[in-house]
Amino acid sequence: MLKINHISFGNIFHADLEIDKKFFNKIKKHSITKHRDLKTTFYEDLPQDLRDQIINYLNTYITEVGKCLKKKSHVFKKIWIQKYGIADYHNLHIHELKKNSYSFILYIDGGYKSGKTKFYNLGYPYIYYDYYLEMPPVAGKCVVFFGALPHESIPSRDNKKIVVSGNIEYS
Question: In whole angstroms, how far apart are CA 150 and each of 34, 124, 132, 147?
């Protein structure tokens, strides 16, 4: 049975999903171009078969999170892969401002030196409650969060961190 943890700060859900080595290795081997400071597929479409595999892998978990949110259905929107090298980071950002828009991060690989994902309160940096949440990059961990929640990936001190990220629309 899937155990979903809910953190009311920022409406964050996380669970440790079963690692599918063949699937994870396919993502690790996927070729990625560096755009500005980060290796990401954000600016291009993933191959349809890989996108379908990602959706298949995550669908049960995303559906269960939707039930927690009292939502009946969801649609996967944009999905991308990011690979982090030494000193790579992803600066503070949000995804979408719509009330039914959520985002996810699936950690494919990472270590204790890999940059954690830091979540801040809504309205940050203009409104600051002196609290943030750090999520370590552990393979198989998947985090779902409100798309307007400010977050960043702090600089990595190794070459291990690989994530699949994306946006979901619940209804």
Answer: 23, 7, 10, 8
Q: How far apart are CA 122 and CA 129, in angstroms?
A: 10
Residues in CB range of 147: below 8 A, 6 or more apart = 94, 95, 96, 97, 98, 101, 102, 103, 167
Give me 47's structure tokens.
């191959």
Rounded Cα distance, 163 and 44, in Å:
16
Across the strands, what pairs with 13?
Answer: 6, 144
Provide the greatest CA pair distance for the chain.
43
What is the distance between the alpha carbons of residues 69 and 65, in angstroms, rounded to a whole number?
6
pLDDT, position 142: 98
Residue 62's Cα: distance from chain center in Å?
A: 12
- Averages of pLDDT over runs of 10 residues in the chain (171 residues) are 86 96 97 90 96 98 97 98 96 94 98 96 86 94 97 96 98 97
Return the pLDDT at 120.
94
